[in-house]
Design a protein that fits this description.
Elements (H helix, E strand, L loop, with lengths): L2 H16 L9 H18 L3 H10 L11 H13 L5 H14 L12 H12 L3 H14 L17 H5 L5 H7 L11 H26 L4
The chain binds adenosine-5'-diphosphate and nickel (II) ion.
Adenosine-5'-diphosphate binds next to helix 7 and helix 9.
Length: 217
Amino acid sequence: MTAGEAVLRAARSFVQGDSSKHSDGHDWPHIERVTALAVELAHRMGADPFVCELAALLHDVPDEKLNESLEAGMAKLNDWLDTQPLDPDIRNKVVGIISTISYAGGQRAAVSSLEAQVVQDADRLDALGAIGIARTFAFSGARGREMYDPSLPPREQMTREEYRNGRSTTINHFYEKLFKLKDLMNTSYGKELAEQRHDYMVQFVDQFKREWEGTDR
Ligand code: ADP
Ligand code: NI
């Protein structure tokens, strides 16, 4: 086993032990899917596959939802990296990727390196399509959020206060975030996949509303 393979293996066991068993969006299968996609995208786009694989494996370690704060999460990530025999250049790249893509919510910073673009695309693609739909309902269910409320205004027309008080539904999340992702993809192959997954979600939301309103029969 090369030194690089040993680091990847250690990262797998560190992250697997750390991630939740529940399908709350930050489970180990999410990490596995994002990592596999990041490696494939790296090969297609000519990015460094080792950097992409390691960053994808570790990308949710500092997530605010899983730590007391983003800073505490970054400290956990850095403590683990201290235990690994990594070239400082590679380590900086990995930390740079994770910190640019891991700010939860809001406008994420534009990413510059090809490796960061690849990992961000892989993470965004897992929020789309059938799995994206399932993760969104699982996340909302875990937070006790309603599925749908046709009387609610779209997110853009809600006050901050209303939104903070949880007056948003699972279906609203598609408009708030998921339907916007296809236009935010960085790589050509990522965009192609995102478009297919996007179309599937549009069909799903259409059918969901038809069944809700009873217009499908
Ligand atoms: P990621 O790990 O892909 O960066 P997030 O941490 O933002 O994603 O969210 C994890 C999952 O939970 C995603 O599939 C996302 O769509 C879903 N999710 C995040 N915020 C909400 C929300 N407000 N309502 C419903 N689902 C959400
Ligand atoms: Ni993620």
